[in-house]
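Teaching note: in complex prediction, the entire set of molecules is handled at once rather than each chain in isolation. The prompt given to students was simply: 'Predict the structure of this complex.' The entities are:
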Amino acid sequence: MRAERRRVIPGFGLTMGYTVAYLGLFALIPLSTIFLKTAGMGWLNFWTTITSLRVLAAYQLSIGASLIGAAVNVIFGLAVAWSLVRYEFPAKGVLDAIVDIPFALPTSVAGITLTAIYAENGWVGRLLAPLGIKVAFTPLGVIVALVFIGLPFVVRTVQPVLRDLEAELEEASATLGATRSQTFRRVILPALAPALITGFALAFARALGEYGSVVFISGNMPMRTEVVPLLIMTKLEQFDYQGATAIALVMLILSFSMLLLINLQQSRSALRDGV
Amino acid sequence: MASDEAEYSPLGLAGVSAKNAVEVSVPPRATSDPPWARTIILAVALGFMGLFVVLPLTAVFVEALREGVRVYLAAITDPEARSAIRLTLLVASIAVPLNVIFGLAAAWTLTRFNFRGRSLLNTLIDLPFAVSPVIAGMIFVLLFGAQGWFGEWLSDHHIKIIFATPGIVLATTFVTFPFVARELIPLMEAAGTEEELAALTLGANGWQTFLRITLPNVKWGLLYGIVICNARAMGDFGAVSVVSGHIRGLTDTMPLYVEILYNDYSFAASFAVASLLTLLALATLVAKRIIGGRVEASSMPHENESVERKAA
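The expected output is the structure of the full assembly:
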């Protein structure tokens, strides 16, 4: 009865039907192929596929490099968000706008450009080569690409929280005798922590699945610089569809749990803020 | 206004500092960063942005023009480049409208009705964010590829989806379907249903209400979503890479064509095409900025308060 009364606004059947049908056709049915395909391959087969040395090396690199990339973004992203919210400097508007470049730039463009910059004869690679640091075609290159594509996430999740942070809190802390660094550690950082964690998780999740920007700079050496999405691609090109789906299934489970964690974290902090 | 503020301040501190300014004035160094910290933070932020954003942006154009303007122009007017541009525009012109209709329907159903499974549906919209682009392409190969579920049926009927334009459209649509919906849902949630209910009470039918009330209310948000959706649709690489088959001049979108040229060691040409995509990205950000301001202005009439607060 209550539900009936609430539906004064028309169009429930139409929009609901369309939304569900669209999601089903474009997302759920296609995604279910992964589960069904792996279900058909048998447990033992699945297990040997996903625990082969090459696959494990790829998982290790993907997870490790994504974690490092996201961590780098937490530190530097906080500095960028802080500068954009708290300081005035020339061309601030431009800087604010280009934070989204890694999001808007096609990944293949990012890939070839980063490779050109960090190759041994590139603008940055040339400076690092005498120091014995190689970036392109090493795991370090993978990290560079993942830092690039994760850049907007931390900045854009921290920025609004920092902007809405009440000045009164910092004033209170200061009147109570806290130094600036104490205020930062005890008042500001705890308030930013949920946003930092969300930004980290988003950057990590994005990095885990990243293909375009990594494929050029990594050099794609099996066991050394081969990330998981690339390994899936290689298997697909060799028509090893079962192998590819098995590896993809593990990836999907990983990213879905990340997404779930982010949602939980967000609803928890929403509860705390009384939203 | 200022005194109101003071009374509502949770700790009452604003009131204290306003009334007894002499006694409890907060030393400015405690609420703003010391100059050395400011310098370091700014240097770190600008250095990071310079290294990871400004440098790559500059590099694209420098590399594109390395062999001169003539090579650049030849590269972007090459027949294969033109067919890649055409395909990219074609794919976006199908995927974006599909996702606009989906976004409107999803936002309407999620913000205008309460039903069981609402939050599940809301989460499902984010699915593509959790799926690697390569996997996004792969699922369509598993469905429509030669070994896929419908592979045999499709080849019997001479329909080509994988390694052809329909596959590229499907993969692109999948990768970009959240963007319009994600933009509209919070806006329609915030707008509420009062105006729509008023229109309905005055005798408007559903479509009239939607076209005359809802759509004008969210038009800037919708445009914002379209701009972002379009940028991602034109720029998708991973998903399209799996389903395209890289047939030169036939199934190459611009991002794929960039890869092909690069792997052929035609670096200048590759960066020339990449520079077009970079211009698209920059145009997207400019549009985003202009429209973003409109979205805020149109959706938050109460925002004036906080502006006043800042001014005070």
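Point out the following to students. The two ends of chain A are 28 Å apart (CA to CA). Chain A has two domains: 1-39, 43-272.
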